[in-house]
Amino acid sequence: MNHSKKSIRELMNKKELLKFKKKAKEDKVNPLKEQKESKKEIKKRYKQELKNKKVKVEEKVSNVTRKKRMRNEIIILWAILFALIIRIAWIQFGMGEELRSMAYVQQTLDRNINPRRGTIYDATGKTILAVSSTVETVSINPVNIAKEDKEKVATAFSNIFELDYETVYKKVNKKSSIEIIARRVEKEKTNELRVWMQDNGITTGINIDEDTKRYYPYNNLASQVIGFSGSDNQGLDGIEAVYDDELKGEQGKIQKITDATGGDISDASENYVPAIDGNDLVLTIDATIQGIAEKYLEEACIDNKCTDGGNIIVMNPKTGDVLAMAGYPNYNLNEPFEPSTDELKAQWETMEETQRNQALMALWRNKAVTDTYEPGSTFKLVTTAVALQKGITTPDKEGEFTCTGGIEVAGVRIKCWRYYRPHGSESLRQALMNSCNPVFIGLGQKLGVHTYYQYLNKFGLLGKTGIDLPGEATSIFLKEDKVGPVELATIAFGQRFEITPIQLATAVSTIANGGVKITPRVVKQIINSQTGEVTEIPVKTGERVIDEQHADEILSMMESVVAEGTGKNAQVQGYRVGGKTGTSEDGVNTNKYVTSFVGVAPISDPEVVVLVTLYNPTGEGGHQGGGVGAPVGGQVLSEVLPYLELQKDNITEEDMKKQVKVPDVEGMTVKEAQSALEEVSLDFQIENEPEELDKTKVVVQEQLPKKEISVYEGTKVILRINEDW
Predict the structure, then answer these.
(1) Is residue 307 assigned to a domain?
(2) CATH number at residue 199
(3) Can 377 be counted among the known catalytic residues?
(4) Which terminus of the chain has a lower count of CB atoms within 10 Å, N or C?
(5) pLDDT tens sequence across 506-550
(6) Strand, coil or helix: what is 219?
(7) Among the listed residues 567, 573, 557, the one whose alpha carbon sits nearest the alpha carbon of residue 597
(8) Co-location of 443 and 532 in the same domain
(9) Is residue 75 classed as helix, strand or coil in its secondary structure?
(10) Cα 220 to Cα 344, 501, 684, distances in angstroms
C-alpha cells in the first residue's frame, strides 16, 4: 500500500520523531564520524533508515485497514445471510401455494373431458330438440412421440381426419406437452386410428378421449329460439346462450404425472375426474305447433313474396307459454355457419367475409323479439281496452261515431283508409270491424296523453316483456312530454311508433287472460342431470290492467271482426275465433309495408293467441292485413286448435267427418308412409327433400304431427328422413 510522506509522518508519534532528529544532529557534528564516513554514505544510511521506518509504518497502516475490511466483510456476510433467510421464509410461506400450483402444472398433464350438455325437450317432454351425442377428441403429447415416428404419425392424422399435413406435422414436432389434433370426431374415425396405432406399434404420445357433440334432430325447427353452441361447449345464441349455466355442466379431467419436459413417467397411473353432465330443459315450445307455424309461415312468405321475411308467435294467454315462435328465413342448427337459403347459397362464393357474417347474423336473428315495427291497426285493440276501462265508450251504442273519411287534428287532416267511401255512422264494435282510423283518433283525444301513457306502461309496452330469450328490444315511443295532438292521434291507430311482435302478443294475451298481465316464457322446467329433480319455472302473473268485463267485451268485438269484418279470412270451422288485422308502413316513405293479424281462440275460453307478421309482401295478393295476414292466422289455428284437443263451439257431423287421427309412420319407408297417410286423406311433405330419392328404401325418422293427433283431412304431415340415406 502507498502513502504520501505527510501521511507517514503524521502516523509517527512525536517521541520517535524527536529521537530521530536528535541522532541525526549528533551524527552530523561528530568529527570522528565525519572522518570515517563520507557525506554520501551518511545520506545513504539516513535514507535507508527512513525507508525502513516507512515500511514499518505502512505495515502498521495495512494491519489497521485489513481489520476494518474484515469487519465490513463480516457485516456484509451477515446481511446476505439474513436476506437469504427472509427470502427462504417468503418462498416457503408467502409463495408456497403458488409454487406448489406451478409445480403441479409442470409435473402433471391434464386432458379435459367435456361434459354432456343438457338435453332440450319440447313442451311434451318427449320430443328432443337438442342433444349431445358421444364422440371423441384426439390429442398428442409431442415429446412422447419418437423422432423417427413423427412423420408417419402426421401422415396418418392428415389421412384419417382429412387435415392439412403441414399443419399437423408442425404440431407433432412442437416441444409442448399437449396439442389437439381433432375435436369431436365420430368413433368410426377414432377406431380407424386405433387400428393404425396397433399396426404400427405406437402406444404412447397419442390420446383418444371421450367428448360430446351437439346435435339438433330437427335441423331448422325453432332454430332462432333454440340457438346453438360452439366448439368449446358454450351456448352462443337463443336458449343455448341464456341457459348456458344450466346446460353446460362441469368439465372432467384425466390427470397424469409427467417429467419436467412433459414426457411420460413409467408406472405413473392416470387419475380420472369424471365430468358432470349439464341439466336438461323442458321448453314451452311444442314441436308440433312449431312445425305447423313454420310450415304456413314459409308458404306465406314465398307466396306473397315477403322480401324481409316474417314471423309467427303462438302463445297460451293464461300462462304466458310460447307454444311456437317461427321465423323465416331460418337456418340449420347443425350447420349454423353455412348459408341456408337458395338465394344466399347462390351468392355465397362471391361475398366478402364481412358480408357473409352479416348474412348469417340476419338468419340467426329472432325478429319477433329483437326487432321493432309499427303494429298498425292491430294496436287499436289497446286503444279500445283503455277507452272501455276509462268509461268513455261502450261496444254497441249505435251512431256513437261518424266517419266522414277523415279527421282534422291541429290543422292536419288524417284520412281513414277508406276515405273514398266513408264508413258513416258506427258503434265501437263496427269501428273495430271496419278498422276505422278517425274513431280511434277521437278516442285517443278523449283519453289524453297522460292517461294513454299510463296504460301503455300497464300493458308493458314501454319496456321489455322479460321473455327468457337474448337480445330483446324495447319499444320506441316519443317521451310523454313530447307528444302533441298529431302524435297522439297516430299512436291511437297504431302508427309512428314501434314495438316488438312479442310485446304486442303479450298485450293481446293480457286481454285474452281476462285483463291480467302475464310474462311470456320459453322454458318451463329444469331437470337436474344428477338427481332427476324437476324445478318448475313459475308462471309470472302481473297486475290487472283492465276489468274482466271489458276484456270479455273486447273479445266479443274481436269475434265480430273475424265473423263479419276485415278478418273474415281467419275463420276456422267449428271454433269461435276473434282477431284484428293490421297494415302499416315499414318506416317513413319507404314504400314498404308490414302486414299482420292477431287472433284469439276459442273466444269462449281463450287458450291460444296467434300473431302473424309479414314484412314487405310484394306479391299479387297485395299488402293488406285482411287479405294476406288473416288467412295465415286461420291456417295456423285450423291445425293448432284440434291438436290441442280444444272443444269446438259448434260441432256438426260434417266437422267430425273431416277430422282424422295421424297414423304412426315412423320407421316406415317413404313409400309405405305415403300409402298410410293417403289412406286417411292426409298429405305429406319431406323436409329438405333431395332431388333424387328412392322412396322404397329411405326410412322416415320423425313425423310432425305425432301419431294419434286429430287433424283435418288434407293436412300436411312433415316427414324427416335420415340425411345420410
Answers:
(1) no
(2) 3.90.1310.10
(3) yes
(4) N
(5) 999 999 999 999 999 999 999 999 999 999 999 999 999 999 999
(6) coil
(7) 567
(8) yes
(9) helix
(10) 16, 21, 18
C-beta of residue 323 within 8 angstroms of C-beta of residue 123: yes
Give which of 156, 114, 273, 140 is closest to 204, Cα–Cα: 140
Q: What is the average pLDDT score of the chain?
A: 86
Residue with cell 309412420: 665
Check pLDDT > 80 for residue 103.
Answer: no
Identity of the residue numbered 203:
T
The answer to whether residue 382 sits within a structural domain is yes
Same domain, yes or no: 194 and 275: yes
Does residue 99 lie in a domain region? no
Q: 506-532 burial, b for 16+ CB within 10 Å, e for fewer?
A: bbbbbbbbbbbbbbbbbbbbbbebeee
Q: How many structural domains is the chain composed of? A: 4
Q: Which domain holds residue 127?
A: 108-280
* Alpha carbon distance 248, 159 (integer Å): 32
Q: Of the candidates 101, 102, 111, 105, which has an alpha carbon nearest to the alpha carbon of residue 270?
A: 111
Pick from 641, 622, 626, 619: nearest CA to 596: 626
* Residues 314 and 289: beta-carbon distance below 8 Å: yes
| Closest alpha carbon to 185 in 209, 156, 154 | 209
Give residue 27's pLDDT band: very low, low, confident or very high (50, 70, 90): low
Q: From the candidates 377, 435, 509, 596, which is the catalytic residue?
A: 377
Cβ–Cβ under 8 Å, residues 177 and 258: yes
pLDDT confidence of residue 39: 61
322 closest CA partner among 222, 396, 440, 400:
222
Answer yes or no: do 261 and 219 share one domain: yes
Domain contains 573: yes
